[in-house]
Each structure stands twice: as structure tokens, then as C-alpha cells.
Amino acid sequence: MRFLGGNIALLGFMGCGKTTVGRILARKLGWKFIDLDCVISDKEGISIAEIFSRFGEEYFRELESEALERISHESSTVVATGGGLPTRETNWDILNVSYLTVYLKCQFETLYKRIQGDRNRPLTSQYSSKEKLFELYRKRVPYYERARVTIDTDNHSPKDIAEEIAVRADLKRSYQR
Ligand code: S3P
Q1: pLDDT tens, 115-150?
Q2: Structural domains in the chain?
Q3: Which residues contact 166 (CB under 8 A, 6 or more apart)?
Q4: Any residues with Cβ below 6 Å from ligand 1, and which?
Q5: For ligand 1, what atom is nearest to the CA of residue 136?
Q6: I need a surface site. Which of 15, 31, 86, 90 has the fewest CB within 10 A?
Q7: Is the overall model pTM greater than 0.85, yes or no?
């Protein structure tokens, strides 16, 4: 693979496959895979669900922005971001400078099937009905759409999605030269 240096950030709603695809993509490129939620929970020594329940969402968002800032100094990384990260304007200052942003687009119905009742995702109990969760999704889509690359993930395997990202990322770089 010709694509060397730089970083890729995967964006999208909960359940769109950022972690699964990110791992495959990183392996393919020979890069490091970083799951931002894991960076946060490792540093705090507690789970994301516990951070939400003990300190609240705003506190989590602070930790999330700090973690993004820290890892943005590394290179050759594929980062799976949390689904709410792109809704904070200051995070885009970092994303736009240090990452090729890739939106993993997925139909809400598919996402809902994957995430409903997941206890590790505190927002699925906070937004307790399908309607509420859809409203959250609807509000977030415009943020995800700011990504430089959008990949349709419906009916594609994680392996194929990773392949598509690698090709599109490489093309973007060729045009920039
Ligand atoms: C969140 C998504 C989660 C995690 C946290 C908040 C969100 O990550 O960061 O529970 O606001 O959508 P995933 O998108 O990996 O589930």
C-alpha cells in the first residue's frame, strides 16, 4: 500500500462499525489503531458508562476533546472516534488539521438494531425510545457530513469498507500533491 504518513479519523453514529473497520484498515495500512473511548477509559481507570453516570456527559466531552488533542500528535494512526465527537466545534480544529476524516454512513434502522439496549453505550438508555435515538441521529448527521470522505456502509462487509477507505484515502492524497 502506497499510502504513508498522516492519520485517518473514522466518524459516524454509534454502531456504524468504526472500531471493527478501523482495526482492519489499520492492519491493512500497517498503521496503529486507536479507539478513542479506550484511550479515555484507560486513562480514567473506569468505563465510559461509569464516567457518564458518575460525572455526566459534559465532563466526558471534555475528556474526549483532551484525548483527541493528545493522540493527534501521533502519525500513521487510524482512530475510531466516539459518535458524539464531531458535534463539538473545537474538535474540528484538530480533525481538520491532523486527520483525513471519513464518515461511515449507515441507515438508522441498521444502527438501531445494533445498539438498542447496549449497556456499554450510556446514550442508548438516556435516549430511551427509538424515536428519541432517531432524533439524536438526525441532529448529528450534518456534523458527520462535514467529513472529507463519505463511505456508504449498508450491505458491505467491514473488510470491503476498509478496502474502499484505503483506495479513497490514497486518491485524495494523490490529488493533493
Ligand atoms: C457516544 C458514543 C460512544 C461513546 C459514548 C458517547 C455518543 O462511542 O463515545 O458512549 O455520544 O454517540 P461509539 O460511537 O463508539 O459507540
Answers
A1: 998 888 999 888 989 999 999 999 999 999 999 999
A2: 7-174 (3.40.50.300)
A3: 1, 3, 25, 28, 29
A4: 14, 18, 37, 48, 82-84, 121-123
A5: 12
A6: 90
A7: yes
